[in-house]
């Protein structure tokens, strides 16, 4: 039910009464709901846990430094609503940090290798604040989401956490512009910003969270659990991750094209590091590969490592996930599958255009 409702609907009245326990919220009859409600009211009289009456109250408590030490009763559904409140702020922040063609707007201004949208003190503080909220939510989710939690709700929370975290490091509207239907003509204006982004720690963090989305879906499809449920929008998660990884690979290739011959003659083979290793719990930040540490790679379902510089090969891994979701086939999945096939067929159009 939650997945069919746009996130902004949740905030029509943040001070309204929050849903009760999830079993009560999803009760299939009035009689069952009344029975569960009476049981809860009886249990609450003997409980000393705080139960926030509204999403606004829960979010206010969430902002406290000692939140994780408070005895607060939170259900998986309420955890998801809390995530929506944080996610909305991340999206708003990302819109203020969009890329601009500064070289074209301000000719003669020499820019450093830093991302200019993150250069102000206010922007840095806001960025750190939102990152802290996301990590705090992640720690809370490890307490709330148990094996008994609905697989659809658990997967939704996990995917949205990594997608929101990814948005904190790169605005997806910029990614869409770089990979849009107008191609090089539209994307070339912000290509310099993407190059600076690719050389910064922000790109490595975005790539790390993208890897965790791939890992989550690969693990789910590998389990062959007939009762496992996915949110209806899971193909969009694959598409977003694929485009972020594609943008990073495109920008890095353009950034490093002049050094290719030098690296090829050095004889040093880069260390391959998986960003979606099934055997490794990466924690709230994902597997962050520092610049110079090695080459970020995607692990395929058979365990082979594919460097992100091999665009066609890592897109094949994304397409494989969509293929494994054939039993959950929807028009959305079919559309995303065709779209990624088209992206794969384009290779690296920016490198081609700049070389011609």
Structural overview:
This protein has one domain. A 3-stranded mixed sheet has the order 1-2-3, with helices on one face. The chain contains 16 helices and 3 strands. Helix 7 runs antiparallel to helix 11. By secondary structure, the protein is mainly alpha-helical. The N terminus is likely disordered. The relative contact order is 0.09. The termini are far apart. Strand 2 and strand 3 form a beta hairpin.
Task: Map the helices and strands.
Layout lengths: L21 H4 L4 H15 L10 H8 L13 H21 L5 H4 L15 H24 L6 H19 L2 H7 L5 H4 L3 H8 L2 H23 L10 H23 L3 H7 L5 E3 L20 E5 L5 E3 L3 H14 L6 H16 L2 H7 L1
Parallel strand pairs: 1-2
Antiparallel strand pairs: 2-3
Helix pairs in contact: 4-6, 4-7, 6-7, 7-11, 8-12, 10-12, 11-12, 12-14, 12-15, 14-15
Globally, the shape reads globular
DSSP helix count? 16
Helix content: 55-70%
Number of strands: 3
Provide mean pLDDT, rounded: 82
Strand order of the largest sheet: 1-2-3
Structural class by helix and strand composition: mainly alpha
- What is the rounded Rg? 22 Å
The span between the termini is: 51 Å
Strand content: under 5%
Q: Compute the number of structural domains.
A: 1
| SSE string, helices as H and strands as E | HHHHHHHHHHHHHEEEHHH
Low-confidence stretches: 1-12, 113-118, 261-266
Please provide a brief summary of the model.
With 356 residues, the chain is mainly α. Helices cover 57% and strands 3% of the residues.
